[in-house]
Amino acid sequence: MQFETTGKKQILPLNYQYPVSAWIYKVFDNADSSFAEMLHDEGYTLENGKTFKLFTFSKLRFPKHTWKIIPGTDRMEVWARKAWLTISFQLPEQLEKFVTGLFQDQEVFIGDKNSGIEMRVTNIENLGQEIFKNQDAQNNDNPTVKFKTVTPIVIGYYEEGNKNKQYINPVHPEYKRLFITNLIDKYKSTGAAGNTGEKDIRVEFTKLNPKTELQTIKAYTPGETKVRAYHYEFELTAPPEILETGYNAGFGSMNSLGFGFCEVVKEGK
Predict the structure, then answer these.
(1) For residue 107, which of 23, 10, 232 has the smallest C-alpha distance?
(2) How many CB atoms are located within 10 Å of the residue 111 CB?
(3) Which of 82, 133, 181, 267 has its CA at 20 to 30 Å from residue 44's CA atom?
């Protein structure tokens, strides 16, 4: 979706994922409070109680040379007149148009108690579905698709005897297993039938990016939390419906806070 900014120079916190997520829930709540409440409090639930929100979003994008990070701060100065954001959902087809229409002409403040930017939605474009087909339907081989992170991926891990969650990196011995398990659980939470298991899915990291991101969630509040996430490229071999779930809902955890938004790497690009 495209925004028009209101005002001249505005100051945006670098940790803006939580305000964006809160705005998305607010849009849902204004249109259908029961849907928003289900998404926020319950999400899509497995029998073991795990819940998934099944949406994620990209970073805010501004035209070149219309913003800069203010040295020594957690803020950026923005004088752009336009901005863009992509929101991705794993939703039943009958809800797609309903959800898209909710955001039209919405006004939004993205920021915290210290600063932020005001914007208005001016255009919404449905980018359509990425179609993941079997490479060789005759041999029933699962397709392999290359992805790269637009927003970093979070994988949480509890070591035995330690109640505090760790945010592990892709070289951790448990990382691949947790990545795949999370993806399968997301798929099952939609109520989809099937016996997809870990044996049907393979992930290989093709380009590990040493850059990590340490994001602060709910900054300057009692609930402030720091989350470390990782950027990389990877090849994922899986049934098409599993690929679709990760692409639409995000890979890894904390997707509704804007983590795990990925794009397909096309050959030759």
Answers:
(1) 23
(2) 17
(3) 133
Token digits for 218?
């709910």
Q: What is the biggest distance separating any 2 CA atoms in the chain, rounded to whole angstroms?
A: 59
Give Cβ neighbours of residue 257 (< 8 Å, ≥ 6 apart): 17, 18, 21, 217, 227
Give the residue range(s) of CATH 3.30.70.1900 domains in the chain: 144-264
| Residue 90: pLDDT band with limits 50, 70, 90 | confident
Residue owning tokens 């255009």: 123
Kindly report the CATH number that applies to the domain delimited by 2-123.
Answer: 3.30.70.1890
Domain with CATH 3.30.70.1890 in the chain: 2-123
Q: 144-264: what fold?
A: Alpha-Beta Plaits (3.30.70)
Helix or strand run (H / E) with residue 68: strand 67-69
pLDDT tens digit sequence for 98-122:
777 788 888 999 999 899 999 999 9
| Phi, psi torsion values for 48, nearest 5 degrees | -85, 5
Task: Tell me the pairing of strands 2-6 and 87-89.
Answer: unpaired
Q: What is the pLDDT of residue 136?
A: 53
